[in-house]
C-alpha cells in the first residue's frame, strides 16, 4: 500500500465532519467539495497573492530583527550582556501573542488578526528607534517584545492561505506564503547600510535606520491586508462549512463563539481524541526546536574555529535558503505523496544534518551543508505539519489550534535555544547535534502508531 493510501483512512480520525469542512476531496454524495466552487477558487487565488505580498513587505522586518536586533540591544545598553535580550524578548513576544492573535482571527477573521499583528510589530519598531535615541533599556525591551509579534504574524499568515484551499492543494497554497518569506529574509539583513544613511540624515543613531524602514514596511503590510483582504478567507470558509453542515445535518462547532479559555480547552480535548492533529502538533513543535537550537549555536561554533563573519553570514544565508526557498516543492510533495510521508522525509533530513554538522570537526563545507539541510528538514516538517494540522481540525477550531501550535512552537524553541549553550559547552557542537537528532525519535515513533492505526481501520 502506498503512503498516500495509508493516510486516507486516518483523515477523519477524531475530526468532526471532516468532509464538511474540507477534509476530503468531495462530499459524500459525490459532488465536489465547496472549496472547488468557481467563486471560492477565485477568492483563494486573490487571497494567496495578497498574503504573499504582505509576507514580502512585512517579512523585511523579520529579517532585520534576526541580523541587527542583538547589535541594537548591545548599542543601547553599552554592554554585551544585553545582546541576548533582543532574541529573548522577540521570542517571548512571538510566543505570548500566538493564542491572542488566533483568538482575534476566530472572532473577527484573518483580516483583523494579521493586520493588527503587523501594525503592533511596526509600533514596536518605532519604539526601538526611540529607545536608541534616549538610551532606555526598558523601552528597548518593550520595543523588542512588540517587534517579535511580527514573527508570530508571519507564521500565522501561512494558515490563512489554507482556509479556502482545496484539500488536495492545501499544502501548496500554504507553502507559497512560506516561500514569500524568503524575499524579506534576504532583504532585511541588507538594510543596515541604507538604514544608516537614512538615520544619519535624520540625526538618529545608525542602527535605527533599518528598524525605521522595517516599521514602515510592516505598516504597509498591515494596510494592504486591512484594505484588500476581502472577503475574509477564514470567515468565508466558516460560512461555507456551516452551510454544508446544515445541508448534511451535522452539528455546528461551538469553537467560533467560545472564550479564549474555552477555546484552549477545546484544543486540548481535540488533541487527545484526534491522533493526526496531535501528531502534526508534535512534529511542528519539535521541528522548530531542533532548528532553533542548532542554528543558535552554529555561529558560536564557527567563531571558535576562527571563521570570519563573512563566512558565518554565508552559512546562515544558506540555512535560510533551505528553510524557505524550496517550500513550494515541499508543498507539492506533501499534496502528492501525503503529509505523513513528507514529514518522515523531513526527519530523515534532520538526521543527515545532525551527522554532517556533528562530525564536521570544524569543516566549513560540512557545516554549511548541515545547516542547509537543517533548514530543509524544517521546511518539510513545517509545511506538511501545518497542512495536516489544518486538515485534521474542524473549521471552527482551526484558528485556536493553529495559535496554540505556534505558541508551543515558540515557547519550546526558546527553551531549546536557552539550553543549547550549556549543552554545547558540556558536550561540544557534536553533542548538540546528537541531541537534535534524538528529538526526531518521538515523531518517528508516533508516525508508526498512526500508520498502524490506519491499517487496522482498513482491515
UniProtKB/TrEMBL annotation:
Xref: InterPro entries: MFS (IPR011701), MFS_dom (IPR020846), MFS_sugar_transport-like (IPR005828), MFS_trans_sf (IPR036259)
PANTHER family on file: MAJOR FACILITATOR SUPERFAMILY PROTEIN, MFS PERMEASE
Organism: Streptomyces coelicoflavus
Keywords noted in UniProt: Membrane, Transmembrane, Transmembrane helix
Transmembrane segments: 50-73, 85-104, 116-149, 210-229, 277-297, 309-330, 365-387, 431-451
Region (Disordered): 1-31
Residue ranges constituting the Major facilitator superfamily (MFS) profile domain according to the UniProt record: 47-457
Subcellular location per the Swiss-Prot or TrEMBL entry: Cell membrane
GO molecular function, one term: transmembrane transporter activity
GO cellular component: plasma membrane
Protein name: MFS transporter
Membrane topology, from the record: Multi-pass membrane protein
Amino acid at each position: 500500500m502506498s503512503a498516500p493510501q495509508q493516510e486516507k483512512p486516518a483523515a477523519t480520525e477524531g475530526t468532526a465532519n471532516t468532509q464538511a469542512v474540507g477534509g476530503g476531496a468531495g462530499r459524500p454524495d459525490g459532488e465536489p467539495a465547496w472549496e472547488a466552487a468557481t467563486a471560492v477558487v477565485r477568492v483563494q487565488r486573490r487571497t494567496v497573492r495578497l498574503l504573499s505580498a504582505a509576507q514580502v513587505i512585512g517579512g523585511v522586518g523579520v529579517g532585520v530583527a534576526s541580523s541587527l536586533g542583538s547589535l541594537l540591544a548591545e548599542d543601547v545598553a553599552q554592554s554585551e550582556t544585553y545582546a541576548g535580550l533582543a532574541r529573548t524578548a522577540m521570542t517571548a513576544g512571538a510566543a505570548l501573542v500566538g493564542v491572542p492573535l488566533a483568538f482575534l482571527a476566530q472572532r473577527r477573521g484573518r483580516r483583523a488578526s494579521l493586520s493588527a499583528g503587523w501594525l503592533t510589530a511596526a509600533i514596536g519598531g518605532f519604539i526601538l528607534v526611540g529607545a536608541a535615541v534616549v538610551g532606555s533599556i526598558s523601552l528597548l525591551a518593550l520595543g523588542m517584545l512588540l517587534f517579535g509579534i511580527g514573527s508570530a504574524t508571519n507564521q500565522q499568515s501561512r494558515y490563512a492561505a489554507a482556509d479556502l484551499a482545496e484539500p488536495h492543494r492545501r499544502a501548496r497554497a500554504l507553502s507559497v506564503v512560506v516561500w514569500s518569506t524568503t524575499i524579506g529574509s534576504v532583504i532585511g539583513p541588507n538594510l543596515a547600510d541604507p538604514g544608516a544613511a537614512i538615520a544619519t540624515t535624520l540625526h538618529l543613531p545608525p542602527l535605527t535606520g533599518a528598524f525605521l524602514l522595517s516599521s514602515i514596511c510592516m505598516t504597509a503590510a498591515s494596510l494592504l491586508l486591512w484594505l484588500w483582504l476581502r472577503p475574509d478567507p477564514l470567515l468565508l470558509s466558516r460560512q461555507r462549512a456551516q452551510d454544508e453542515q446544515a445541508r448534511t445535518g451535522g452539528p455546528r462547532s461551538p469553537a467560533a463563539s467560545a472564550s479564549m479559555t474555552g477555546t484552549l480547552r477545546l484544543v486540548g480535548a481535540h488533541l487527545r481524541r484526534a491522533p493526526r492533529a496531535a501528531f502534526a502538533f508534535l512534529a511542528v513543535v519539535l521541528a522548530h526546536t531542533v532548528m532553533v537550537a542548532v542554528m543558535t549555536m552554529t555561529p558560536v561554533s564557527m567563531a571558535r574555529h576562527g571563521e570570519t563573519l563573512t563566512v558565518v553570514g554565508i552559512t546562515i544565508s544558506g540555512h535560510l535558503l533551505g528553510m524557505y526557498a524550496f517550500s513550494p516543492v515541499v508543498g507539492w510533495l506533501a499534496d502528492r505523496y501525503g503529509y505523513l510521508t513528507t514529514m518522515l522525509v523531513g526527519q530523515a533530513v534532520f538526521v543527515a544534518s545532525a551527522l554532517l554538522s556533528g562530525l564536521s570537526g570544524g569543516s566549513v563545507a560540512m557545516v554549511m551543508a548541515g545547516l542547509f539541510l537543517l533548514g530543509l528538514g524544517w521546511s518539510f516538517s513545517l509545511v506538511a505539519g501545518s497542512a495536516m494540522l489544518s486538515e485534521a481540525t474542524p473549521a471552527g477550531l482551526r484558528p485556536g489550534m493553529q495559535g496554540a501550535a505556534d505558541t508551543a512552537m515558540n515557547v519550546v524553541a526558546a527553551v531549546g535555544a536557552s539550553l543549547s549553550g550549556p549543552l554545547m559547552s558540556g558536550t561540544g557542537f557534536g553533542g548538540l547535534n546528537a541531541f537534535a537528532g534524538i528529538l526526531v525519535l518521538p515523531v518517528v515513533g508516533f508516525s508508526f502508531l498512526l500508520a498502524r492505526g490506519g491499517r487496522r481501520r482498513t482491515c
